[in-house]
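Input C-alpha cells:
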C-alpha cells in the first residue's frame, strides 16, 4: 500500500541493466538479452533471479515505448515524435519478439520450473506456453507492419476538425453542442461532425482492408482458421470462448435492448418531436442546459481527487501523486489523438492519463474511469514481476468501470445543486444501459469480419447495418442519413488499433454493476472486495479475481436481467 503522505514515487533501482542505461539502438540491448539467453540456471533460486532480471529489462523497455506512444498521441503532427515511436516499432520490437520466444522456451524447459510455487508464476508460465505455441518467425514482419498501419488511424482521426460559428474545433469539442436545448444547433453539429468523418470513410475503409488482410495472414501462419481464433489465444482468453461471446450477444439482445426501446420512446415523448433523430440522444429530455461539471482540466482533476479521497483517502492520494508528477494530459486540442487511456509505466509504477476533456459529464466520467485504471496500476506496482501486473482486460476494465459507479455518492464535488446531481447520475446509469448493446454490436461485427476475411467494403457495410439493427432501438429515424449510419463503426478506434479488445467492456460492465451492488449493500465490505481484486494483478485466473471482488463471472441472460433490474431500481429512486 502507498503511504498516504507520499506526494511522489521513485522507481526501484535497476540492478541488472544499471542506472545509466539508455536505449539508442538495438546493439545497446543485445548483451542483456544474450545474458538471459545463455545464462546457466542451476537452481530454483537461479531461475527466480533470471525471471526478476528479465522483468527489470522488460519493464524498462515497456516504459520506454510508453513514453514514445504518449508523446506521439499528445502531438500527432510532430514528425520527430512519430519517428521516435516508429523507430521502436520497426527496429526494436521485431528483435524483442525473436528473443522473447527463445527466453520463454528457456524458462518452460527448465527442470526447476515446478519449484517456483509463488503465487502468480503458474499464470505467467501458462501465458508463456501459449506464446510459444503461437510464435511464428514469419509473423514478425507482419506484426511490425500491422503496428505501423494501426498508428495511422490516430493520425487520421486526430487531424479531424470542424468549423462551427467561425471557430475551428476538435470533434470532441463540437460534440458538446449535441447537448444544446436548441434542436437546430444540435442538428448542425451532428451533421457537421458526421460529414467530416464521412470525408475520410474511403481512406479508413482502405486502412481496415489492409489490416484485415495482414491480421488474417498472421492467424493462418499460426495454424488457426481465422484471426479471431488466433486472438483469443494471443489475448490469453483462458476463461471464456467465442461461444460465450455469442451468448453475451444473445443475452444483451433479450435483456437489454428492450430497455433501449423504452428509453427512446420516453425521450421522444419528453422532447415532443414527431421523429427521434440522431441529434436528439444527448440533450436533456426536459430541455435543460447541458451539465457542466468543470471548466478546465485542472478543475476536473482537483474535483476528481476530492471525490476519490472521500471514497477512501488512499484513492485520492493516487491521483495526487500523478498530478505532482505531471502524469496527466486532459484537455482536448487540435493535433491530439482521439480517445483516452491510462498507460501503465512499469518502471516508475505511476501511470499516465491521457484524454480529450472539454467540459461535459462524459469527460468527468472518463477521468473517473481512467482514474480506476490508475489506482489499479499503483496497487500492483510492487508485484515481483511485470507479468504479474499485466492484468487481462476483463480485470483492467473492472477496475475502471467500478470506479465510475462507487464514486457516485460523492459526485456532489462536481455539482452545486441536488437537481443537477440527480440528472448526472440518471444520465450515467442510462448510458450504461446503452453501453452493453453497443459493446455487443462492435464485438459481433468484429467476429463477422474475421470469420469472413475476404469480404469487400460493401459486404462489410451491409453486415454492419444488419448487426447494428439487432442491438439498437426501433424508435430512431435515420431517414436521409443512411450513408452516415453505414460508417458509425469507423469512430471506434478499437477496431483499428486493438482488434477484439471490446467485449471486455461488456464483461467488466456487468462486473462493475455487481461491485456497485455490493457497495450499496455494505460500503466497507464492497470497497474492500474491489481493492482485494485489484491488488491481485494477474496472479490468478480471471474467475478467481472476480471471486475476490465477491462477484460472479457470468454472461447469462438471468444474471444480466438481475443486474438491469438493480440499475432500473436505482434510476427509479433518482427520478422520484
Amino acid at each position: 500500500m502507498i503511504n498516504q503522505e507520499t506526494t511522489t514515487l521513485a522507481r526501484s533501482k535497476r540492478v541488472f541493466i544499471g542506472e545509466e542505461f539508455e536505449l539508442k539502438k538495438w546493439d545497446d540491448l543485445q548483451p542483456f538479452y544474450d545474458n538471459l539467453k545463455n545464462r546457466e540456471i542451476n537452481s530454483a533460486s537461479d531461475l527466480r533471479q533470471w525471471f526478476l532480471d528479465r522483468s527489470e529489462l522488460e519493464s524498462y523497455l515497456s516504459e520506454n515505448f510508453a513514453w514514445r506512444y504518449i508523446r506521439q498521441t499528445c502531438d500527432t503532427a510532430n514528425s520527430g515524435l512519430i519517428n521516435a515511436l516508429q523507430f521502436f516499432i520497426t527496429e526494436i520490437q521485431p528483435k524483442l519478439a525473436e528473443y522473447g520466444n527463445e527466453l520463454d522456451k528457456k524458462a518452460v524447459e527448465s527442470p526447476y520450473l515446478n519449484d517456483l510455487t509463488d503465487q502468480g508464476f503458474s499464470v505467467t508460465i501458462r501465458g508463456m506456453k501459449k506464446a510459444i505455441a503461437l510464435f511464428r518467425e514469419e509473423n514478425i514482419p507482419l506484426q511490425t507492419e500491422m503496428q505501423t498501419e494501426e498508428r495511422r488511424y490516430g493520425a487520421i482521426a486526430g487531424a479531424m476538425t470542424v468549423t462551427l460559428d467561425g471557430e475551428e474545433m476538435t470533434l470532441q469539442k463540437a460534440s458538446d453542442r449535441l447537448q444544446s436545448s436548441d434542436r437546430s444547433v444540435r442538428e448542425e453539429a451532428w451533421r457537421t461532425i458526421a460529414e467530416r468523418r464521412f470525408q475520410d470513410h474511403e481512406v479508413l475503409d482502405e486502412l481496415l482492408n489492409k489490416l484485415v488482410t495482414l491480421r488474417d495472414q498472421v492467424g493462418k501462419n499460426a495454424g488457426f482458421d481465422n484471426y479471431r481464433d488466433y486472438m483469443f489465444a494471443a489475448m490469453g482468453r483462458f476463461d471464456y470462448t467465442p461461444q460465450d461471446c455469442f451468448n453475451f450477444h444473445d443475452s444483451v439482445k433479450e435483456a437489454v435492448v428492450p430497455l433501449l426501446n423504452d428509453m427512446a420512446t420516453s425521450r421522444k415523448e419528453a422532447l415532443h418531436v414527431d421523429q427521434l433523430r440522431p441529434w436528439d440522444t444527448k440533450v436533456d429530455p426536459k430541455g435543460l442546459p447541458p451539465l457542466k461539471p468543470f471548466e478546465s482540466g485542472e478543475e476536473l482533476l482537483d474535483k476528481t481527487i476530492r471525490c476519490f479521497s472521500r471514497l477512501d483517502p488512499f484513492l485520492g492520494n493516487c491521483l495526487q501523486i500523478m498530478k505532482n508528477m505531471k502524469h496527466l494530459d486532459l484537455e482536448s486540442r487540435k493535433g491530439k489523438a482521439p480517445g483516452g487511456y491510462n498507460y501503465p509505466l512499469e518502471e516508475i509504477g505511476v501511470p499516465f492519463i491521457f484524454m480529450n476533456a472539454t467540459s461535459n459529464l462524459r469527460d468527468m466520467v472518463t477521468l473517473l474511469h481512467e482514474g480506476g485504471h490508475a489506482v489499479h496500476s499503483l496497487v500492483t506496482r510492487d508485484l515481483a514481476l511485470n507479468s504479474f501486473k499485466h492484468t487481462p482486460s476483463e480485470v483492467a476494465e473492472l477496475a475502471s468501470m467500478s470506479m465510475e459507479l462507487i464514486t457516485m455518492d460523492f459526485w456532489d464535488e462536481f455539482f452545486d445543486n441536488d437537481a443537477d446531481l440527480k440528472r448526472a447520475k440518471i444520465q450515467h446509469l442510462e448510458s450504461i444501459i446503452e453501453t452493453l448493446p453497443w459493446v455487443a454490436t462492435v464485438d459481433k461485427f468484429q467476429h463477422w469480419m474475421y470469420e469472413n476475411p475476404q469480404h469487400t467494403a460493401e459486404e462489410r457495410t451491409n453486415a454492419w447495418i444488419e448487426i447494428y439493427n439487432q442491438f439498437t432501438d426501433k424508435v430512431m429515424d435515420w431517414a436521409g442519413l443512411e450513408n452516415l449510419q453505414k460508417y458509425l463503426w469507423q469512430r471506434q478506434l478499437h477496431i483499428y488499433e486493438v482488434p477484439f479488445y471490446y467485449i471486455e467492456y461488456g464483461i467488466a460492465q456487468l462486473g462493475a454493476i455487481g461491485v456497485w451492488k455490493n457497495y450499496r449493500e455494505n460500503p466497507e465490505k464492497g470497497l474492500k472486495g474491489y481493492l482485494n481484486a485489484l491488488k491481485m494483478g494477474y496472479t490468478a485466473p480471471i474467475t478467481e479475481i472476480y471471486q475476490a471482488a465477491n462477484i460472479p463471472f457470468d454472461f447469462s441472460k438471468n444474471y444480466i436481467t438481475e443486474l438491469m433490474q438493480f440499475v432500473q431500481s436505482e434510476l427509479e429512486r433518482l427520478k422520484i
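The mean pLDDT is 95. The radius of gyration is 24 Å.
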